Amino acid sequence: MDCWEVLGIEPRSDKKTIKIAYAKLLKKTRPDEDPEGFQRLHSAYKEAQSWEDYYYEEDESEWDSTKSASEPAVLSVDNSESPNDVTLASPSADYVFSEDVKPLEVTVTYSESMDNDSVTETIESTLPSVDLIEEPVQQLSKEDLQLLDDIREQEDALAESWESFREQVNTLVADHKACNVVANWSFLEEMPAMQDLEFRKNVADSLFEVVSELNEESLKKKSLYIKRPVINHLNNLFKWDKHWQEYEYRYSASLHEAVFPYLEETEKVVPGSYISREVHYYRRIAAFAIDVAIFAVIGFLLFTIGNNLTSTEDGVLWLIGWGFIYQLVLTPIQECSHHQATIGKRIMNLQVIDMKGKRLGFFHALGRSFTTIICCSLFKFVLWINLILSWWKNELLQDRLSRSYIVLNARKD
Amino acid sequence: MTILGIDLGTTNSACGVWRDDKVELIPNSLGDFLTPSAIYIDSDERVHVGKVARERSVTHPNDTAQVFKRYMGSRKQIKLGKREYTAVELSSFVLSRLKEDAEKHLGETVTQAVISVPAYFNDTQRKATKQAGEMAGLSVERLVNEPTAAAIAYGLHDKPEHSQFMVLDLGGGTFDVSIMEYFSGVLEVHASSGDNFLGGEDFLDLLVDLYLQKASLKREKLSRQELQKIQMQMELAKREFNVADTVNIEPILASQTESITVTRDEFVKATESLLQRIQVPVETTLRDANLRASDLDEVILVGGATRMQSLRSAVAKMFRRLPMANLDPDLVVAMGAAIQGGLKAKDKALDDVVLTDVCPYTLGTGTHNEADVSGVQGDLFSPILERNTVIPASRVSSYYTVANNQKALQFNIYQGESRLVKNNIPLGEITVKIPKNKKGEEGAEVRFSYDMNGLLEVDIKVISTGETYNKMIQNAPGELSEAELEASRKKLSKLKFHPREEETNQLLIARAERLFESRLADDRVTIQNSLRWFEELLEKQDKREIQEGQVEFSDFLERFEQDRLF
């Protein structure tokens, strides 16, 4: 059963016929009484509507083709509906969004016919009239009259604001240095036209296009033309991430890939602070023990081989050499490999990462190994000093440094 | 069978019924349609609801609770006097009072109700609301989304055939946006969105901050009582801004000597960030409904906070048109809830009206994130029911194992819009056992069913064995268990409501006491004297005399309050 059969109407019926058929059937298939029937009916209704949209687009293809894909969807709006109340602001917005030098004058006229009186009549008679408590009849207050003036003013300024927005963005992005200074984008917030929803949406989409196109280009050379701080600033203003599905749907993968991966989650303010920090004591000790064991076995083998093979019995030299190779070559190589771990760490399911959660480079890993040696040496150094001090002066390092001493509590005896 | 329609608000609540083919709002014992959502528990453990409780918030801040709707669905305990209460319990007090008012007004017992909730309330918050109703002795027949309720009221009132409109509902604590279409008796919600932590109370908070800053006072250094006093005055000032450009505030605390002037511009500037926040859900609904701002035929304002001129102006500028507010923004949700009650009761007059609503947020489960080796991102969110799906709805998705010999599949259920589950709200978890097999060979079908009340049910079927798990979500944070509910009922049974008949007198006394506390010297003596006179009058128990006294005393207090603000 296709959607037209479910609705009981001719295929390719117009929107209004679909709606009336749906409304009629809906009253027999109420969502709370017949959930399954309702779901069937509703999906048929949606499907019929999307077919209708498709036909509509086909019919309107003349104007559709004049509009290049990269332009914002609608350049000029002429809403043919006239408001029935003179005192209300007309929703018809005659401002023209013109792009760059070639001001395209494409006009979309809402062609949904308004002659629905016949339908209205039949339905109105069946509806109950509801007496509700109304606010006192709205006389346009001083404030509202002022508001109407403000709205008109805003409306008149829209086209100009759009011009100036395009201009400022174009000059800004032409200068690679300037466009990466967040403060240089503050003009966006200062534009009064930003209060207008449609204007704001057009700005949001247009900026998304600008940023993603620039970055898509520069990413081919492995760099970001518009860098993270500005991307995130713009995202905070326009909430691209809130509508990620829509942008993913509308733009190619390479375009949204040039923006979304560089957005920081709002709660992550300090870089690096978002890795949940934990020392993993036991695992690290175990991993260390395993590594030491491997090191010791190989070291012992080398030591014996060195002692027996060479005439000068330089097994100790072999051992020291092995120690250097192990710590300064093998360990860093292992830690910057795709395993990101030494054998011990791998066994204990540990991994070495940098502050951004990525794999270390070789020199970064070398630095890490070197720091390990220094820390271990310092630890041993302090241990030795303590031993010497206790044997020689009967005190420990902290006693000597803090000029204090520890004795038995005499009062207890 | 009457079904009571209730608007359980953050600041105010109201209720009504569908009777004789029209909406009938129910007045409380004071004759008001609005009952403040405030609770006061006195030293005798008697519960006061409404205006009396609000007056007592100044004199007895530790025994009163307000704005508790914000904690619906959380485990937060609010201390009142000797005991602690959850938001569910406090809400049930309000509902009990409304039920009592309705029974008095209708002359019959009321056991069924339709309660309105913010469209953006999540599963846990909805269940909590239902529990509050049950605790108050009302079986909740339907939870209706607030903007939808408002739209029903408008739909039946104006009958705007073939029109698309947006309802902006800014209440005391929550903000909801819905886009609807009305045709041939069908009210179809296209998209809903919102912000659960944006409301009139936030505007009030900022105004209090502004005042404190001007008066060089520090919030931390003030006692709860002093802060309450300032809040109360600021609430009046906030309303004053709807008509006046500047508000002059006389000293509030004993330590202050000079009056302070706040201008509307300052107030607007201080609340600019809040006004900007309303844009986000508005934009989301428009994008979801695939509409442009100019496609809308009407923008309707609902909720007490939309009376603010600054909000009206922000909305007007967003849409380039004047928003509509023909019906009382405080009561329109209650009217809609009442109509929904009539619909639910299959009232003949409403035969030709059908309402379809949507689920305002995406629901799904967490899936293994293979690309995330370092564990920074966490699981990915796999949507099952996309936001703005028409309800009731039911959708199935299949999930497979990611490791060899996996023993179980754990489904963490989330609600939200982010790609990563850690940014979404966890609703609960279900674990199903599966036979051992190679990875990707075993799996389960997950069915999400979303009912008309906005409550979620999850069915899981293991594909190979056919074993089914039909569980309501468990471990939802903040949800009360059956045992906890029982304990709660026991606790509440010890409490008694203050007799409804005495409320008028109670309110007058509470008001007088509040005024007494906020005044000095001569004023205090005057108030004290009249209060004593009124109390003596009550002792006499002469009905007629008391009624006359009430009017006189009320006028006296009115005069006193009025010379406070200019």
From TrEMBL, chain A:
Transmembrane segments: 285-303, 315-333, 365-392
Cellular localization per UniProt: Membrane
Assigned keywords, A-Z: Chaperone, Membrane, Transmembrane, Transmembrane helix
Membrane association type: Multi-pass membrane protein
SUPFAM superfamilies: Chaperone J-domain
Keyword Membrane: yes
Domain of life: Bacteria
UniProt xrefs under Gene3D superfamilies: DnaJ domain
Stored SMART domains: DnaJ (SM00271)
Stated name of the protein: J domain-containing protein
From TrEMBL, chain B:
Cited Pfam families: HSP70
Gene Ontology molecular-function annotations: ATP binding; ATP-dependent protein folding chaperone
Protein name: Molecular chaperone HscC
Annotated InterPro entries: ATPase_NBD, Heat_shock_70_CS, HSP70_peptide-bd_sf, Hsp_70_fam
Entry keyword set: ATP-binding, Nucleotide-binding
Domain of life per record: Bacteria
Annotated family: Belongs to the heat shock protein 70 family.
